[in-house]
Amino acid sequence: MKAHVYTSVEMPCSIIAIGAFDGVHKGHQEVIKQAVQRSKKRKVPSVVYTFDPPPLVFFQGARMLTSIEEKLEKIEKLGVDHVVVARFDHLFAKRNAYRFIDTLRKLNPAEIIVGEDFRFGKDRLGDIALLEKYFRIQVTMPVCCSNGNPISSTRIRQLISEGETTLSNAFLG
Ligand SMILES: Cc1cc2nc3c(=O)[nH]c(=O)nc-3n(C[C@H](O)[C@H](O)[C@H](O)COP(=O)(O)O)c2cc1C
Ligand SMILES: Nc1ncnc2c1ncn2[C@@H]1O[C@H](COP(=O)(O)OP(=O)(O)OP(=O)(O)O)[C@@H](O)[C@H]1O
Questions:
Q1: Is 99 helix (H, G, I), strand (E, B) or coil?
Q2: 161 occurs within a structural domain
Q3: DSSP for residue 8
Q4: Cα of 107 from ligand 1 centre, angstroms
Q5: Ligand 1 mean position to 56 CA, how many Å?
Q6: Is residue 68 a part of any domain in this protein?
Q7: Whose CA is nearest to atom 16 of ligand 1?
Q8: Range of the domain at 89
């Protein structure tokens, strides 16, 4: 079934996975799968909250791994009910962590799923400890490659630029 896609939305209850999710690699997939599992268990809709363009693309001109269309396609395949795609621009990036918490409150999250390095808000000042003051947070353990380093969009960009497409495709799942 297709997910509902919004730029912003309010909901009576939700389980949210948050992130840039550029490439929707195996680590991202784990975060999103956890949200879908928790949503099924608690009978509450699952939401992926993501950004377009990905913040690293916006700030550093990083190469984008997936277009928004491809990203939505990969997210939908994981069985998510709703996707919020926030437009990431100068105005959005200036919102402080508390303002973003107010945005999340509008989704009434029963749980929020993130990876352990998740940061948010102006100058990346918001962290998991702050989020935990307002919501119930589940942290997904890092999905690592064979050398023990976590899979990341940055690593995949590097592999692609080195022509290591077999490995990058393996990480992209
Ligand atoms: C409201 C808001 C403001 C942000 N402002 C900044 C910023 O000023 N500088 C920055 O590097 N990242 C900023 N970000 C991006 C975050 O650092 C981070 O990339 C985003 O929350 C997604 O998390 P992820 O990178 O772990 O997927 C902001 C994010 C949000 C939600
Ligand atoms: N390997 C991983 N295992 C588990 N969770 C992950 C992994 N990589 C990222 N996450 C989590 O997924 C969400 C989205 O992460 P993000 O888009 O920043 O990925 P990233 O691969 O670290 O990207 P980049 O390298 O561009 O910073 C965040 O909550 C993050 O903590």
A1: helix
A2: no
A3: S
A4: 19
A5: 8
A6: yes
A7: 120
A8: 4-142
Nearest ligand, CA 114: 2
| Number of domains the chain contains | 1
Tens-place pLDDT, residues 70-126: 999 999 999 999 999 999 999 999 999 999 999 999 999 999 999 999 999 999 999
From the CA of 24, the nearest ligand is 2
Task: Supply the ipTM of this predicted assembly.
Answer: 0.97
The two tokens of residue 5 are 């896609």
The answer as to whether 173 is a domain residue is no
Q: Is the overall model pTM greater than 0.95, yes or no?
A: yes
Written in H, E and C, the secondary structure of 26-50 is: HHHHHHHHHHHHHHHHHCCCEEEEE
CA of 10 to the centre of ligand 1 (A): 21
Whichever domain contains 127, its CATH number is 3.40.50.620
Instruction: Compute the residue count for the chain.
Output: 173
